[in-house]
Write a structure and sequence with these properties.
The chain is an alpha/beta fold. The chain is built from 16 helices and 15 strands. The chain is globular, with a radius of gyration of 25 Å. Its cofactor is Zn(2+).
Length: about 425
């Protein structure tokens, strides 16, 4: 079957619309499933977490909280070096995001902004189809740069214990602890806190639909703050006839490798490139069988190649799609980049595959999906900072501005107290 190729024209606009109309996974049936789990964890704490861990993970666990400082293991030197280099690059890029305090004089008054960190954060690291030490670095390091006092990892328990690679990533990133519980019970345990699991004020990181539903539900109750809700991973590649079809195919498949529901789209103005990429995708599926069934299902169900009449139409489609990852592999990629309005992270030129951002370049791979880049940004230092505004009003300014306060408070019907709280500060005449 292979990846589908569509020549875009007036007669197949519905085909485009079906791709553009994707939405975040419908969680209406999932929230009723996680709700009693979350309530049980809230009410019965560690005991409920133990019961759900046995039911869903098949493991009997009597301990969930592991200080990272307790880990005395080691990992191969090349893995340690890779983690350290990734940390160096992530720190460099994210340190540049630290905002500066603001002081400004307005109508004679000193106004300003200062930033304060969230007090405690949990970083969810999935443990199902793959293990993600890289997610630990991406989540913990920006939080630490922001000054969050306590950062803990939440990850499902593994038979035989957690791999040293996860511990090594947690230690390199500076995490304080690892909490070995996953799914809805894991989210509930850090949202409410238990006797042995510290409560967090904010939780980030991708997970399955039960994790996402739990985060959204608890956030709606005001129990915990969350990042943008996560959906299937996705990439959109804009390429012209200068692109290497083998490289483009590899980039599409790198997203398909995440899961059966991952989305991989190529937009091009070259039918020749489209045909070559389709052939390279099929060739790679046959030659690289690891996760083969998963990759093929993703490509055949959610992989698409659209051939537009020009690159401007490719950009227009991308802006409507608002992808998580956007690659631009064209001769004029810098020019096209200036026209991009919505994307989680953009990869420019032929030597910038998404995998560089996933692991080592320094940007963050925790990104908005399913069109959420229209309103959300990538995870960064600002995710963990709160803006606190302040004002210091002078007596002279209060006198000059009171007439306006009087008018506005009377119009709103709040002059008796709002207006009066200013008026009583005026000099007696």
């Amino acid at each position: 079957m292979g990846i589908s190729i569509t020549i875009v024209g007036e007669k197949n606009q519905a085909d485009l619309s079906s791709v553009l109309s994707r939405a975040k996974e419908d969680l209406s049936d999932t929230i009723p499933i996680v709700k009693p789990i979350l309530e049980a964890v809230r009410d019965r704490g560690d005991l409920a977490v133990q019961e759900f861990t046995k039911r869903f993970d098949g493991l009997e666990v009597d301990r969930f909280f592991y200080p990272v400082s307790e880990w005395k293991g080691s990992v191969p030197k090349d893995l340690q070096a890779a983690l350290e280099k990734a940390k160096e690059n992530i720190l460099t890029f994210h340190s540049a995001q630290i905002p500066q305090p603001v002081d400004v004089t307005v109508s004679g008054n000193k106004l300003g902004i200062r930033y304060t960190p969230i007090e405690s954060v949990s970083v969810y690291a999935p443990g199902g189809k793959a293990l993600y030490p890289s997610t630990i670095l991406m989540g913990v390091l920006p939080a630490k740069i922001a000054g969050v006092p306590h950062v803990q990892i939440v990850t499902p328990p593994q038979k035989g214990g957690l791999p040293d690679g996860l511990y090594a990533a947690a230690k390199v990133a500076g995490a304080d602890a690892i909490i070995t519980t996953g799914g809805a019970q894991g989210i509930g345990s850090v949202a409410y806190g238990t006797k042995t699991i510290p409560r967090s004020e904010f939780i980030i990181g991708p997970g399955n639909k039960y994790v996402t539903a739990s985060k959204i539900y608890l956030n709606g109750l005001g129990v915990i703050g969350i990042d943008s809700p996560a959906g299937p991973s996705e990439v959109l590649v804009i390429a012209d006839d200068s692109a290497n079809p083998e490289w483009v195919a590899a980039d599409l498949l790198s997203q398909a490798e995440h899961g059966e529901d991952s989305v991989a789209i190529l937009c091009t103005d070259s039918k020749t490139l489209a045909d070559k990429v389709a052939l390279e995708v099929e060739k790679a599926l046959n030659e690289r069988p690891k996760r083969g069934e998963m990759k093929r299902e993703s490509i055949e169900k959610h992989g698409r190649i659209f051939v537009f009449s020009n690159l401007e139409s490719c950009v227009a489609f991308s802006n409507e799609f608002a992808p998580e990852h956007l690659e631009i592999q064209t001769k004029n990629y810098k020019e096209l980049f200036q026209k991009i309005k919505h994307a989680g992270s953009v990869f420019l030129g032929p030597y910038s595959p998404v995998a560089m951002g996933d692991y080592i370049s320094g940007t963050n791979h925790i990104l908005p999906t399913a069109g959420a880049s229209r309103i959300y940004s990538s995870l960064g230092v600002m995710t963990f900072l709160k803006r606190v505004t302040y004002q210091e009003v002078t007596q002279n300014s209060l006198e000059k501005l009171y007439p306006h306060v009087k008018v506005l408070s009377e119009f709103e019907g709040l002059d008796e107290e709002h207006g009066n709280s200013v008026k009583i500060r005026l000099p007696k005449k």
